[in-house]
Amino acid sequence: MHVLRLLLKNLDNSLQSLDCGRCVEDLGKITQTLRDGSYSYNQIYSSLLSCVTKVESFICTQVGKEIDLDHSFNGTDNILEFEQWITGTIKHTFENIDNKESSSDTLVNSAQEMIEQNIQNTQLSLGFIANELGISAKHLSKIFKDKTGVNFIDYVTNLKLNHSRNLLISTDLKVEEISDIIGYSTSHYFISRFKIMFGCTPNKYREEYRKKMMEDFSENQGKKIHS
């Protein structure tokens, strides 16, 4: 039984690693060991049931729904039938995971495009984008964080403030005008968010940037004169 316990542990690791090929290979080793060894009926049944339990737990975690495989398991007449059935179940589960990942990628990409398009919209929010995509705000929040590594609100805030910084250094627009352009309802709120991210007010940032540009320009001109 020591060998079987080791093989079952390997199966568990393969499932957690999301490695379909290794899962199928580990299952093959388990069933081959059971066929070749002198194991009792109870030992064989217990080992196969352990496989089923691990796969059930894996499906619940990855696909997000509970599943009872006992009926299908009890419908297999021998080890070979069991191997064919459980292998097919695992492959089908991995296909669902791949489809789910692809769908999530598409949704997040669409959400990012919509954020860009609505950056000036004061109604821009998680609920607004989720409604436009036809999904729940909770689901969008989860997949957005999973795919980008940043929560939705922080992503939008960073995008708005980086856009505002570009406007500060490339235009003469007033702070109030920039606040409107990036979709903030009040300039006071915009200034407070900007200060948190960049460590100074928008006007101070513009002043320091232009001062640095003038210093660099003067330095370059001086080098040209003495060259």
Per-chain topology:
Blueprint: H1 2-16, H2 20-36, H3 41-63, H4 70-74, H5 79-117, H6 126-133, H7 137-148, H8 152-170, H9 175-181, H10 187-198, H11 202-226
Molecular structure report:
This protein is mostly helical and 227 residues long. It has 2 domains: 2-101; 118-226, Orthogonal Bundle (Arc Repressor Mutant, subunit A). It contains 11 helices and no strands. The protein has helices at residues 2-16, 20-36, 41-63, 70-74, 79-117, 126-133, 137-148, 152-170, 175-181, 187-198, 202-226. The protein is elongated and about 90 Å long.
Features:
single chain, 227 residues, mainly alpha, Arc Repressor Mutant, subunit A, 2 domains, 11 helices, 80% helix, elongated
Order of helices and strands: HHHHHHHHHHH
Taking all Cα atoms into account, the compactness measure Rg is 29 Å
Percent strand: under 5%
Distance between the termini: 84 Å
Q: What is the mean predicted local confidence, pLDDT?
A: 88
Structural class: mainly alpha
The oligomeric status of these chains comes to single chain
Write down the CATH topology of the largest domain.
Arc Repressor Mutant, subunit A
Characterize the main sheet: none
Individual helix count: 11
Question: Which term fits the overall shape?
Answer: elongated
Helix content: over 70%
CATH class descriptor name of the largest domain: Mainly Alpha
